[in-house]
Write a structure and sequence with these properties.
single chain; 193 residues; alpha+beta; globular
Length: 193
């Protein structure tokens, strides 16, 4: 991997995992209000592979947020999910854990439900009978949640403390060391020396 440092931009060159040609990755430091120091990452290969993400560089105490979604207005509650955030919706049996290609996002509860629904739609297209039936049941429940007819709990846990649910009715607490150790952290962890 070659590196071309600049003041805020660092360009690295590596091998594309799809075609083995050169993969160019730009790393740009930035400072965003509320989030603090972040790193914007974009990779692009001539074969069409593209990847982009914004990583929060700060590390805070491990945190857990929880909000009950009991009415349509709750769909507007803001959700900040960093690359190390795990989202759980126990009533749906949904756990969204960070993986190697985990991306951060800022959305709301409805946006999180839309992401879950998109994944369920993909499961339906696989056309495996038992999974298709369950996916359609969950899609039906999600529509009831959006109509204010079904209550759920949305939980976000982040061992690096960079995720949040922003609402007056959201409750949060620091995770214990044991709880934080059980969580996945996503792709890359930067540690200060």
């Amino acid at each position: 991997m070659n590196s071309e440092p600049n003041s805020n931009l660092t360009v690295t060159r590596s091998v594309c995992p799809l075609c083995s040609k050169e993969l160019v990755t730009n790393w740009v430091k930035d400072n965003i209000p509320f989030f603090g120091e972040v790193m914007h990452i974009t990779s692009k290969c001539e074969c069409g592979l593209r990847y982009s993400d914004t990583m929060i560089m700060a590390q805070s105490k491990p945190i857990r947020y929880e909000v009950k979604v009991t009415a349509r207005e709750d769909l507007d509650v803001r959700v900040v999910r960093s690359t190390s955030g795990t989202i759980r919706i126990p009533e749906l049996g949904v756990d969204i854990e960070p993986g190697p290609a985990s991306e951060s996002f800022i959305s709301n509860i409805e946006g999180v439900l839309d992401r879950v629904s998109d994944i369920l739609e993909m499961v339906v297209r696989w056309n495996e009978e038992s999974q298709t039936r369950r996916a359609k049941e969950l899609q039906s429940i999600i529509e009831k949640v959006k109509a204010g007819e079904f209550e759920i709990t949305v939980i976000i846990e982040d061992p690096l403390g960079n995720s949040a649910i922003i609402a007056e009715k959201a409750i949060h607490r620091e995770l214990t060391e044991e709880e934080a150790k059980c969580l996945k952290t996503g792709m890359i962890i930067f540690e200060k020396e």
